[in-house]
Amino acid sequence: MTIRVLAFARLREILGVPDLTLELPPGARVEDVWAALARERRALESERSSARAARNGSIVPFEALLSEGDEVAFLPPVGGG
Amino acid sequence: MYAVVRDPIDPRALERVVRAGDGGVATFFGIVRETADDGRPVSGLWYEAFDAMAIREFETIASEVRERFGDVSLAIVHRVGELRVGEISVAVLAAAAHRAAAFDACRYAIDQLKNRAAIWKQERYSDGDAAWKEAPRH
After folding, report:
1. Which among A10, A76, B81, B106 is least buried, having the fewest CB atoms inside 10 angstroms?
2. What CATH superfamily is the domain B2-10+21-126?
3. Chain B positions with Cβ closer than 8 Å to A
4. Predicted pLDDT of residue A29
5. What are phi and psi of B96, to 5 degrees?
């Protein structure tokens, strides 16, 4: 299934692009998206504990299951204002 | 009025949420400072947002404001992109029948926004260095 991935701030910098698409087997979870990205980007390892994930715009745990066409966003700690 | 914008914020534009029954209006503007907390000279700030999530958080904060402080009309506008020293990064306006609710609502909204909204800030220093700044932990 096709998953769209977004990343912001420091995570966007590590990813190298603000968004990309991934092909994952059915039954994949948010965690699998992160793992697929982290395989080629060692710098993500130290970001995992502080990162949050959103599925289609809502915060979800990394164990959350994905469906075809879902958008997964990875968010580092926020700090606007 | 809840928005993430890319162009300069016009503070007067927020006044359109003020209603005929409002007798008190409190506003807060966040401005890009020329020095960082550690004293380093800053050339500007870079902001980015997950717009849809940030705006939804503004709306959630607004409903909390009404639960806590009663009938308050609120506007929250945050700018993203590259900002120079002296420019407004965020504007909050709270209007209520009396000043206490307006002040309390304005303070609550900006404090919550900084800690919760899907917005990120990078300090860019005059020496060319840059650093992402996260909200201080509680």
Report:
1. B81
2. Molybdopterin biosynthesis MoaE subunit (3.90.1170.40)
3. 30, 47-50, 52-54, 56, 78, 89-90, 110, 113-122, 132-135
4. 98
5. -150, 175
